[in-house]
Write a structure and sequence with these properties.
206 residues; Arc Repressor Mutant, subunit A; 0% strand; 9 helices; Tetracycline Repressor, domain 2; single chain
Length: 206
């Protein structure tokens, strides 16, 4: 990835500030979902019952607010699906199949997922922040691939980072199509088809 990293936002340290931050994040999430990726600062302030000035004080700009929403989304996703052992004691294939199921469930459950994957109206700062999250997820996937190779559970002839990029990129595009479908593709079918794809990429029996 190229370019400087997006500066991290500083969360409030007081209980009152933290409560305002959370209300603004929720209001911004609702705005993005209901308006299909479009966000207006005045509308977010009205939803949260807080002043526009407080939004700028916390986030600096409209883009900074959207970055905070994107950060919150990926932070929850990583905690629930990517940075956990979803099948303790299981084989590599069992763990990664379960991780795939958790990933699909997270995206199906959160209405913001469809917006972030395909409808978010990006400016440069938001696009860079999302690219950084994707790059970090590719790194996590690469670490998992490398661990599987060291343990003899995966073929050693595949580059971990390249394979990780294929997994993360494939998952994002499959989920974007699945979530945008009308009627929506059933969650179980999406998880099964996605696991078939991932298993082939990483070299295990689906």
């Amino acid at each position: 990835m190229t370019g400087a990293k997006v500066p991290a936002l500083t969360r409030p340290t007081t209980a009152r500030g933290a409560a305002s931050w959370a209300r603004l994040i929720q209001a911004a999430r609702d705005e993005l979902v209901e308006r299909d990726g479009v966000l207006e600062i005045d509308s977010v302030g009205a939803r949260a019952g807080l002043s526009v000035g407080l939004i700028y004080r916390h986030f600096g700009s409209r883009a900074g607010l959207i970055v905070a929403v994107v950060d919150d989304f990926y932070g929850r996703y990583r905690a629930e699906a990517l940075e956990t052992d979803p099948a303790p004691g299981g084989t590599f294939a069992e763990r990664e199949r379960r991780r795939t199921e958790l990933s699909v469930a997270f995206h199906y459950r959160d209405p913001l997922a469809r917006v972030i994957l395909s409808n978010l109206h990006l400016d440069a700062q938001v696009a860079q922040a999302e690219a950084e999250h994707i790059d970090e997820m590719v790194g996590l996937a690469a670490d998992v691939m490398a661990l599987g190779q060291r343990r003899g559970e995966l073929p050693k002839d595949r580059d971990p980072r390249f394979t990780g990029a294929m997994v993360i990129g494939g998952m994002r595009h499959v989920l974007a199509v699945a979530l945008a479908g009308q009627p929506r593709i059933p969650e179980k079918r999406t998880a099964e088809n996605l696991w078939t794809l991932i298993a082939a990429v990483i070299g295990v029996d689906a």
